Task: structure prediction
Amino acid sequence: MNEVDPVFRPPERGVPHSSHWGTFSVRLHDGGVEIVPHPRDPAPSSLLANIPAAVSHRARVARPMARRGWLEHGPGPGPDRQRGRDAFVPVSWPQALDLAAAELRRVYAQHGPSGVFGGSYGWASAGLFHDAQHQIHRFLNLAGGYVRSVNSYSSGAATVILPHVIGPQGIVAGNNVSWAELVAESALVLAFGGMALKNNDVGGGGTSRHVAGGNLRAARGRGVEFHLIGPLRDDLPAEAGAVWHSIRPATDVALMLGIAHTLVAEGRHDRAFLDRYCVGWQTFEAYLLGHEDGRQKDAGWAADVCGMPADEIVALARRAVGRRTLITCSQSLQRAEHGEQPVWMGVVLAAMLGQIGLPGGGFAYALGSTSNTGKPPLAVPLPNVPVGRNSIDDFIPVARIADTLLQPGEPFAYNGRQLTYPDIKLVYWAGGNPFHHHQDLNRLRRAFARPDTVIVQDSVWTATARHADIVLPATITLEREDIGGSAGDPLLVAMHRAVEPFAEARDDHAIFAGLAERLGFAAEFTEGRSPRQWLEQIYEPTRRALIARDDDAPDFEEFWAAGELILPTLPWDGGMLRDFRRDPDASPLPTPSGKIEIASATIAGFGYSDCPGHPAWLPPSAGPSTPAADRHPLWLIANQPATRLHSQLDFGATSQAAKINGREPVRLHPRDAAARGIRDGDVVRIYNDRGACLAGAVLSDALQPGVVQLATGAWYDPDDPAADKPLCVHGNPNVLTRDIGTSQLAQGCTGQLCRVEIERFEDPLPPIKAFDPP
Ligand code: PGD
Result:
């Protein structure tokens, strides 16, 4: 499929703009803003309809605020741990900046940079200059340094395991198998965790063309056979015409082992490929055949674990041989306990089929998990704001934030290293919402009670802002100028300002510039440039690269006036894996052996029981017949929402339209509903030992019985903020999820799965207050 539509014309009217979920233009009306999708986008996202509400919603932070207890008693949580429960007091901008600057000065003087947590994880907004992550890291680097976070909530396990096994995530999620190759070359796709279209709505930084649906249709039209493996039928859209193998949650590795065992038992694995391109086969084969633990991982064994009949496993293994088979692994699979294993085992299965490095074959991590994977890479660099250098190297794996705040000084393992949690006194967050993204929110509340000071910059009253001491109102992208672009999308967008800033909101850059001025490094932070001059400055390297290629290279004024620029892309060449396949000696992989590591001596050397030296079936600690499952028998899948990006714009039209009685919809199988006397549209209480929330029941046979699904992103809304374990009346699943790392290797987020029970909620419905300012 052609990635760049030759008949494309720039939008003729409206203010050009961009978001993580699509490029658009803004038309201004008396009553507000109208969002018009970019004409080049074949399948614009319904998430665009969330944007108009953001312009003046009551959830916007109108002016700087400070927590009363913090103002009156000074930094520190206070003996009553009032953070998140206390009242807020409005303060002027000069006051707010003076307070924040004085506290930064105090903490740096008394505790140094290792007392400041600036990991500040979060998706923020599209726009390469105002990106909150760039701004906060540039600011904190100049302020003296900070404890950073590494990896992401999206891909915590894969990012760490892949370099040990095959190479950096970029080569297996990026320049490896493209959509175009899938359409043209693949014969069979085994999609572990699927390729849900809702996830393809979103591409970090912006996306001008939503191509997944069209490519799936084209592939099916060419006869590509899709198999969806997972407990939710709609994780592959109808256009793929997939065979649905509804296995139990968290058992993909067992199924993969059953397929692998069948290949070996029938002599169908590609021994030549394993010999030439891989190391560690014998070690893994001994495990597979039960020489290690006396247990053959055959199809019968796998069937018992995953619930797919043994004869279907055998049939699937046979169908995967002798044709161009692509194994994909969604990000969701690795966002669970032992999340390293499905990624590693997916690579091993693809190696056993001898397909790695072939067009449309092998293993593709996260193809179909975001809008911008599987598209050709850009041929020129994107505009980029330098963030400078951090004076310290202290870091935490990003999903260990609550452990950090609760357990300062305690040791923990990470990727072969023994590290110590820092003693954080000041937390500064801009562009993220940990009370959306982190697990076990009641535990996170205890963690957020610990530091001396929490500063949050956001445009809206998220639960994170409500747990801060100083809240600084940030603009939304519509209120500022920027350049939109993403490494996986060819359109560079001149994001013009569409509306005036809401109330007293300021750009993150302006807020940090004001702090930098008080702290004595304003000139270093702004380099004397206005935001517009910054845009011109960061555009220049892209333009120079275009000139060097003899491509159309408009100057900044021309680009700005045109509203956009299509950047050249590189031809898809299969990258490092294809070179490796052609000649493994001349083009070794960047793994310790230079080959695909079916067993890893490095990982074995770490001695982690939760991540051994080869892929293995490690039963989840909340699996069948465990105390967790006995008490709360349903698996909850807390996945990405279809109606918003994470928690962003939960008050928007698309997100609100899906709510039931104002609550987030929870899907459950009619059989599970009947057993509990639950009807479609009932408000239900979902609970386990960690917490409870309300949600609106939607009965659906698109789920496996025993599985319920509640998307992330409903704003946390405790009925009684003073309680230890309040009921979230709105439906945030992270009050239920468990706060443990994937393993000692990656320590990634495991928010995807946990055990719950559900009952009808019979009490009077509590009001939703999440969108009311405190
Ligand atoms: P967002 O809702 O996107 O979630 O977690 P993340 O924190 O990224 O939060 C972004 C915040 O930034 C919003 O509050 C928004 O208002 C604010 N913001 C936007 N633009 C700006 C700006 O310009 N300036 C400032 N100052 N603020 C801005 C997402 C994370 O959640 C991710 S990536 C994943 S993949 C995880 N997924 C799961 C999961 O599958 N299951 C569970 N249970 N939990 C998850 N959490 C993770």
